[in-house]
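With this grant's support, we have settled on a layout for protein records. An illustrative entry appears below exactly as we store it:
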Amino acid sequence: MSDMRLIVAGAGGRMGRALVRAIAESKGAVLAGALEAPGSDLLGKDAGVLAGLPANGIKLSADLWAMSKDADGILDFTVPAATIANVAIAAERGLVHVIGTTGLSGSDNAVIKSVTNRAVVVQSGNMSLGVNLLAAVVKRVAKALDQSFDIEIVETHHRMKVDAPSGTALMLGQAAASGRGVTLDEHSERGRDGITGARRPGNIGFASLRGGTVAGDHSVTFLGPFERLTLSHQAEDRMLFAHGALKAALWAHGKAPGHYSMADVLGLADF
């Protein structure tokens, strides 16, 4: 099979530049386009140069329809509005759409899922092997421990992150809720402040820290009578997310239409 031709959405951002580097460093894929927001000062710049590589001749453009003509997939770690704008075009062009965007609403996710009867979408709050293994373990532990063990999730990210809790924290919360057989929306506590009253049994708590240049730290603690169990993951460089997204795209190339996750990519769906 020839190399997979990939478009990087948000190619001028930190994650976009990491994705451009990951494609350049890997076999089986080539950069076919570099998408940036309309009006960006980076439009027309060389994607390779922006990523700290030699010039590759791929200029940043806001025209996804034109650049997707000869592409096979799109790696999308942008913002909700941009991702939703990309969904219809990616589906119409038959692109594999790898979505790592966080902060998506319920209606955003409904739009994404609406195209998966005719398009291949791989979506995850985190593309790393370690985090997805962590989520699988969290689900198992939550299932094994009863509600005498409270569950608290703490995440730390760089000062520029705009959404909280992180997509990864919510993914871990979903794993814990699934293990407990409950819905996260009805069993979560966020942003405690003031006189909150005693902790409600069975709820999953979240805390978000922001500062510095942290790529992403996450911990899930099970607090029971007289003992605590903490499961954690530390991301040292966002390149791990870029390589995970690339792995997802290559795995999804040629798959039947559907909505997939990194658990599917890594063979963890039944773990």
User: Anything to note?
Assistant: The longest strand covers residues 216-224. The two ends are 30 Å apart (CA to CA). The mean pLDDT is 95.
